[in-house]
Amino acid sequence: MVAQSWKKSAAPGRSCRLVLVGLPPAAAITPAAARKTAHDAYLYVYPMVENYFSIYAWAIDENGGQYKGPMNQVNNVARVFGPEDTGVVTPNSDTPYSYLIIDLRAEPIMVTLPSIEKDRYYSLQLVDLYSHNVDYLGTRREGNEGGNFLIAGPNWDGKVPKGIKRVVRIETELMFSQFRTQLKGADDLPNVIRIQKGYKAQPLSAFLGQQAPAVAPAIEWPPITRDQIVPEAFRYANFLLQFAPVIADESEMRAKFEEIGIKAGGIWPPQGLDDETLGAIMAGQADALADIDASVAKTTSSLDLFGTRQDLAGRTLARAVAARMGLYGNTAVEALYPAFPADSDGKPLDTGSNKYTITFAADQFPPVDAFWSLTMYDGKTRYLVANPIHRYLLNSPMLPDFVRNGDGTVTFYISHESPGQKLEPNWLPGPDGAAWLVMRLYMPHPEALNGKWTPPQIVRVK
Prior knowledge:
Blueprint: E1 7-9, E2 17-19, H1 31-60, E3 75-76, E4 97-103, E5 109-113, E6 122-128, E7 133-138, H2 139-142, E8 147-152, E9 166-169, E10 174-181, H3 189-196, E11 200-203, H4 204-208, H5 233-240, H6 251-258, H7 275-298, H8 316-326, E12 335-336, E13 339-340, E14 356-360, E15 372-378, E16 393-395, E17 410-415, E18 427-429, E19 435-442, H9 446-449, E20 459-460
Parallel strand pairs: 8-9, 17-18
Antiparallel strand pairs: 1-2, 3-4, 4-10, 5-8, 5-11, 6-7, 6-10, 12-19, 13-19, 14-17, 14-20, 15-16, 15-19
Helix pairs in contact: 1-5, 1-7, 1-8, 7-8
């Protein structure tokens, strides 16, 4: 196996290139200890690599099919996502996205949100490189009045200017953020586009009309594909950890990871690592992946999967499961995601072989202040499913169009083939094979968070 890594090599303010470098031989460690450390390290870094995959696809790879625009500017997508959007797993198809992927090394970024009507949901989700939901701007936190907000990195200690509603501190030098703007129907898209045009981002110096500080060293971004994320996670992690200063509470853990070569700027695998220890590390990685996938298979809610560093302290498995199921999921108070990996009999969903229904009582639709939806994904890829009517979800804005049963209940039909023209308004098309269903409750009521309200089950038609 060829040892390689990417490491910054430049004086401050000069162009930075990434070169292959070597490391001293890894510290002596038993194979058993190496396996355990690799397991823990994989849970820790896997979400970072999933994060980088999306950052690379959307803001760096200009020749890729998923590219949205450069870093440090708002890049709007004036449509909802479909099957062709593969830059992240389980994307929503409710809210047109606007992306703001930020490099905070040189200076903070000023974000401006426009004032919008009170009955529309919008938000900016701020995610650090680890994948923590650091904070939110928008409807739930500030209302819909808009304003200026300062996003600052770990090394900034400047003076906060006047006219700023709030400062958000990010612990990593690179970060991901995305706007979600509620779409109330196909004819509402022009209104969403108008709001998107009001999202602005600019360096603090530009906002103040001052001279910009020295430009941060250029980064030679290592290419990444979906197939590389799992097997090469440690190699990408060593690149990414350069932009993630060690947090005091994690210094001991990060030092432990360095014993097997997981360190900022380090090569992977490290030079001097014997075959037995390397095999143990690979086994530890496999152990971690097995733990992640086992948890994914039985996870039915996002309630405790997404949040701040404090929310997820010591829960690296939860953070990894969240990245595997649906990176960039919201913290539960912002949006809750009940998931349906299986039907009411406990069998995995397969719309290629079965037909299913889910029925809501007339007064038991998901309790929310914003809106709710039920979205279909391919059970293997977690991407949206192509279908003849180009429908990827059923949601609350569609309520007037649903066919109601005689008792006022509403039944959704989940299948690969249409249930017939009469029932087609209630049809959620599935793949010809394994399926995965996710419900979204934006700004859920307390009863959804405390378990007093639960979604109905998916029932296989026998």
